[in-house]
């Protein structure tokens, strides 16, 4: 009996030893496998981090390039728009200068002009505001150039409003003109300029401009021209 118990104990101890060894081997193997997995995970994480940083840097560079292109395109667009506005302004100035040059060229000419006072070079030009127009004309004389002459003049617009014939004086259309006739004085010539505001619905047809020596209205000269023709230039006048 004792021998059997001794063998049993020896067998139990052996089993325990074997079980312990198996446990150690399992734990050691698990540790080794876990360490290997952790190492692989860390390596993959570092690789992902490197890829992320590289992709982020590439994205930032592309965004910077795109922004630079957009800014460049906006600068080009603004420069082109500024150039276009400059060309428009210069074209308008050139047109005005050409009109001024033609005006003074015509004013210094005296061939085929009637004696006495004249109204000439009547111009009507539109503005950016509908119904508002710039006007300009010249008062001149062909005799008595050595002295200043006192003159009076008037301008009237004839047209249609609500189907009826109407006429307006310059004082009714130009806020800067208080009354007509207008008195002035000049030695050689004088330029008259201003802005007229047409009543809503008024369709101008013709313009009548008169000039006379202030003391002798019977010696008046009249310039008559159509509204459309006034959008150009004329020098025709006739005695009344």
Description:
It is a single chain. With 240 residues, the protein is α+β, with helices and mostly antiparallel strands. The protein folds into two domains: 1-108; 114-239, Immunoglobulin-like, CATH 2.60.40.3880. The chain has three helices and nine strands, in the order H-E-E-E-E-H-E-E-E-E-H-E. Strands 3, 4, 5, 7, 8 and 9 form a six-stranded antiparallel sheet that branches. The N and C termini lie far apart (166 Å).
Give the rounded overall mean pLDDT: 77
Give the proportion of residues in helices: 40-55%
- Count of helical regions: 3
Structural class: alpha+beta
The end-to-end span amounts to 166 Å
Q: What integer value in Å does the Rg equal?
A: 50 Å
Order of helices and strands: HEEEEHEEEEHE
CATH fold call of the largest domain: Immunoglobulin-like
Number of strands: 9
What is the annotated CATH architecture of the largest domain? Sandwich
Q: Which CATH first-tier class of the largest domain would you pick?
A: Mainly Beta
Low-confidence region ranges: 233-240
Shape label: elongated
Largest sheet: 6 strands, antiparallel
The domain count comes to 2
Question: Any chance you could write out the topology, listing elements then pairs?
Answer:
Elements: H1 2-108, E1 117-126, E2 132-141, E3 149-161, E4 164-169, H2 170-173, E5 182-186, E6 189-197, E7 203-213, E8 221-226, H3 227-230, E9 238-239
Antiparallel strand pairs: 1-2, 2-6, 3-4, 3-5, 3-7, 7-8, 8-9
Outline:
This protein is α+β, with helices and mostly antiparallel strands. The chain has two domains: 1-108; 114-239, Immunoglobulin-like (Sandwich), CATH 2.60.40.3880.
């Amino acid at each position: 009996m004792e021998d059997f118990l001794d063998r049993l104990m020896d067998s139990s101890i052996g089993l325990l030893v074997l079980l312990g060894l198996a446990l150690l081997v399992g734990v050691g193997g698990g540790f080794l496998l876990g360490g290997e997995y952790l190492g692989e995970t860390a390596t993959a994480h570092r690789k992902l981090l490197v890829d992320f940083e590289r992709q982020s840097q590439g994205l930032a560079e592309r965004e910077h390039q795109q922004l630079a292109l957009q800014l460049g395109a906006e600068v080009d667009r603004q420069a082109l728009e500024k150039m276009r506005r400059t060309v428009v302004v210069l074209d308008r100035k050139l047109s005005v200068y050409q009109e001024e040059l033609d005006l003074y060229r015509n004013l210094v000419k005296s061939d085929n002009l009637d004696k006495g006072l004249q109204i000439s070079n009547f111009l009507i030009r539109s503005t950016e505001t509908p119904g508002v127009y710039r006007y300009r004309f010249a008062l001149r004389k062909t005799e008595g150039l050595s002295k200043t002459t006192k003159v009076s003049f008037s301008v009237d617009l004839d047209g249609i409003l609500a189907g009826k014939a109407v006429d307006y004086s310059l004082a009714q259309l130009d806020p800067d003109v208080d009354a007509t006739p207008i008195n002035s004085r000049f030695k050689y010539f004088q330029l008259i300029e201003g802005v007229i505001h047409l009543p809503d619905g008024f369709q101008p047809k013709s313009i009548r401009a008169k000039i006379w020596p202030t003391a002798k209205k019977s010696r008046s000269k009249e310039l008559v021209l159509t509204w459309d023709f006034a959008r150009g230039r004329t020098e025709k006048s006739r005695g009344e």
